[in-house]
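A common beginner's mistake is to predict each chain separately and then try to dock the pieces by hand. The better habit, illustrated here, is to supply every component at once so that their relative placement is modeled jointly.
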Amino acid sequence: MTDARAATIEDVARHAGVSRAAVSKVIRNAYGVSPAMRERVTAAIEALDYRPRVAARAMRGSSFTLGIELPHIGNPFFTKIVAGATAALQGTGYQLIIAPADVDGEEGVRALGALADRQVDGIIAISPLVSTAWLERLGTRMPIVMIGRHDRSENYDTVTGDDAEGTRLAMAHLFDLGHRRIAHLTRSADVTHPGSGTPHAVRLEQYLASMRSAGLEHEIRVIRTGMTEDAARVDTLAALDDDRPTAIFVGNDELALGALRAVGEAGLTPADVSVVGYDDVDIASHPAISLTTIDQSGVEMGDRAIRLLLERIRDGRIEPTHFSVTPVLKARASTRAVRTG
Amino acid sequence: MTDARAATIEDVARHAGVSRAAVSKVIRNAYGVSPAMRERVTAAIEALDYRPRVAARAMRGSSFTLGIELPHIGNPFFTKIVAGATAALQGTGYQLIIAPADVDGEEGVRALGALADRQVDGIIAISPLVSTAWLERLGTRMPIVMIGRHDRSENYDTVTGDDAEGTRLAMAHLFDLGHRRIAHLTRSADVTHPGSGTPHAVRLEQYLASMRSAGLEHEIRVIRTGMTEDAARVDTLAALDDDRPTAIFVGNDELALGALRAVGEAGLTPADVSVVGYDDVDIASHPAISLTTIDQSGVEMGDRAIRLLLERIRDGRIEPTHFSVTPVLKARASTRAVRTG
DNA sequence: CTGAAAGCGCTTACAG
DNA sequence: CTGAAAGCGCTTACAG
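With all components supplied together, the output reads:
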């Protein structure tokens, strides 16, 4: 009835006939509380349906909230990372909040800043488009795990896939199938800046290296596109010209789905143009899609990122840790032996 | 250098030689600030790289944060809702945080509670598995928009698809193709409880009604499954027995993809067993998938939910509003005319 | 083991 | 237009 405002710690203390400090201790499971007091307080909490305000707690202690910055919520690979993180958080008392940075590339700073402003106890940043210096500064303020990028720092942990190795696997697979004219479809130049350490940068560099060491420098062809499947479809379609490649190594699965769509729309099949993706999102294994790709276990990445964060928060770890997952080739029907003619 | 702790409003006030109240007014763009003072404060904010702590603001005013509860982050339809919401938030000064409830059905309460504990200024709840009474109580405390469920309340807004109409479109399409033996693949009984108003409940009821009014009561077959594509694959496979249906109307696209996979694994094609989904997720239109489905515009739902929330927060609207999007049939290759034999 | 008091960083009336 | 003071709901030393 008199539901006007939710109970506060003051209400609970009064109801139980104890001090606010005592209630606080019970809530936090702190030492120095008699069983009798614990019982009375617990009963009062129950009776008043009391829940501590996170904002008030955050002012003095911690917010029991971990934040994850998502560059593009439409990408199912990121979704797998979040699923892994969510599962790892079960029973820890911490809550995950996601800050989507969907709109454009510059939004990463905003999303990360928004998490910091909310006093989260730690942040997972997925291949954020911010400078190492910026992230390092944030890392002095709170625990950070960066997923994806290969640049390291004393101030934050990293969880990465071995993108060079993954790319080598993909290229070797195509070479084995007899392909020589292999194009690479990747994001715009600002995401693949050499030395930036982004997954896309590393994959591009290794693509170039693999082509060169196979003596195929003259066959190198880099196609640029945006962040979405549809952008990839449009840009692939434009690249299926007279001089078209026999295979395309694509920077990630979401873009590879667009490339596959383009191949179909051009009246071709994987027998004409093979497509390899990267990530192994769920739909890649669907028989109708059957996309050859590199599995880099997003679930494990999310799980690991949470563990690293909790180590810093609860165990007080300071030294940076760098964890790497091993990529695995998933050969499927979207890659075929090159036509001999 | 002395980056020990981030600047507070006190630091800014001192730097600018004004009171904290003055800084607060400038931040909030409140009335009664001379241009000169505004300029000095702005300069000080810039110089100190000051950002107000959200937790502190939330204690007195608002958190400028909106929360969205996601039942299952793996479902790309929910992802579209989030994308619509994110876009609608651009330039409003509000930030969206997502609370995933991925783990199991009961997690909805936890996720919603977590958002409430964080003093968000408003909440979007996607078909939450909580009672109307529970949600109503929450609605007295903060603005709420519920997406999906058809139950209404004086205390919150709703954004729904016309699930009965969408189901009618799907069933009419199958009838037109000559199907009679049409099964319905849906979630477990606790999600389709009659009268609960969940989308799955409404779709199930309309499936039954459509079958009955077509004189096909004896062909009714309801197959139950879990929340994931893989669960749907397994349960569909089990249903492709000697007495198998010629068509399956599936509760949503994610499950329909699993059903499609099962059809393939059973050595059949849509020419043997047609499949209709619901939602029109992106991959449904991929030529290799080509899933017939009902488009209910998740992006528009997310956009609308944000607008309704902001109306309550900023304009002080009190009367509940109910918004419905109109479903559209997307007929594709996963539905074929029934074989005459 | 228990509690009174200070303080976290803001906003909000209220004086001036 | 400007500022001093109270207060939001917690946690944290510090006494007792």
